[in-house]
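R.M. (postdoc): so does anyone remember the format we settled on? I'll just put the structure tokens first.
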């Protein structure tokens, strides 16, 4: 039980560290440059220094959306809460501005790190829900009364580290489009293209087999190479500005991952020992001492199995 608690705590620390690494502005800039049309053509440094507003919030701030709360667009809240809908946490949330047709437009962007691709519901629907919440929560902060023209476009970008084979190494974007059923009238795209969920799916390949954003994310979050090698590759191949916080985060992430993996291996070995011991007990021809010696399980644990207790 203690080992399980320790492993769960390590996983929480690992997840938190991944989110901190993912919230680095240079990482965000690379994701925006690849996935978001509004940032195509801008350099990483321009996006970092001129587009990403303030410090991205990472799962820490609470807002009561129903009664106004303290929600302010310049300091994005990472949790939306309503009396009827429960609580929704955002991994990373921030605003970004970008030049468009001679004026600046402001976007609200959420980035999620997701390990479970099949959590019991379609992940894409959750991404659509997050977009919808970011739209509805603008009332009272971005706009009031009937000033719907002020609604800002939102993106929810999901980094999926363990998708199914079908989805592996894909980047898929979903957005509203206009279709004329009768007639040929056209509304400005900016009036309806307001929410965009994006799925960025990794897989089981080595990063050296990949290119671009998928290669960078795979290398940092999945490949079993040293922290020093990851930092070197980020600098040299991806032109990522490595801050002390990013270097520390990558190092901690690697160390935590190694600890989780070793504990997993240890649990596997113990499970095998218990299986061997249980099979020997069922045959009723071995003494407890013989079972302990052959299975490798301590005699005390063998006696617990014989007594019907959990080893």
């Amino acid at each position: 039980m203690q080992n399980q608690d320790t492993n769960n705590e390590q996983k929480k620390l690992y997840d938190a560290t991944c989110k901190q690494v993912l919230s680095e502005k240079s990482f965000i800039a690379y994701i925006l440059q690849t996935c978001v049309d509004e940032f195509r053509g801008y350099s990483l440094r321009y996006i970092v220094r001129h587009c990403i507003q303030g410090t991205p919030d990472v799962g820490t701030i609470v807002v009561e959306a129903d009664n106004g709360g303290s929600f302010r667009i310049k300091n994005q809240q990472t949790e939306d809460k309503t009396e009827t809908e429960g609580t929704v946490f955002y991994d990373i949330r921030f605003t970004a501005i970008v030049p468009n047709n001679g004026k600046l437009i402001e976007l609200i962007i959420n980035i999620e790190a997701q390990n479970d691709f099949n959590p019991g519901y379609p992940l894409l629907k959750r991404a659509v829900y997050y977009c919808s919440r970011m739209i509805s929560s603008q009332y009272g902060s971005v706009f009031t009364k009937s000033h719907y023209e002020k609604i800002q476009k939102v993106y929810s970008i999901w980094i999926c580290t363990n998708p199914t084979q079908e989805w592996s190494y894909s980047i898929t974007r979903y957005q509203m489009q206009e279709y004329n059923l009768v007639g040929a009238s056209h509304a400005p795209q900016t009036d309806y293209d307001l929410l965009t969920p994006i799925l960025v799916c990794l897989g089981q390949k080595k990063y050296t087999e990949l290119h671009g954003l998928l290669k960078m994310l795979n290398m940092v979050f999945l490949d079993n190479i040293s922290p020093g090698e990851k930092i070197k590759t980020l600098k040299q191949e991806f032109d990522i500005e490595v801050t002390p916080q990013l270097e520390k985060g990558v190092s901690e992430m690697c160390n935590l991952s190694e600890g989780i993996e070793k504990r997993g291996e240890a649990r596997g070995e113990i499970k095998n020992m218990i299986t061997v011991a249980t099979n020997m007990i069922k045959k009723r021809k071995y003494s407890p001492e013989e079972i302990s010696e052959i299975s490798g399980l301590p005699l005390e644990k063998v006696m617990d199995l014989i007594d019907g207790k959990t080893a």
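R.M.: ...and that's the designed sequence above, right after the tokens. Also worth knowing: The chain has nine helices and nine strands. Strands lie at 52-57, 63-64, 79-82, 86-89, 92-100, 103-114, 154-160, 170-173, 195-201.
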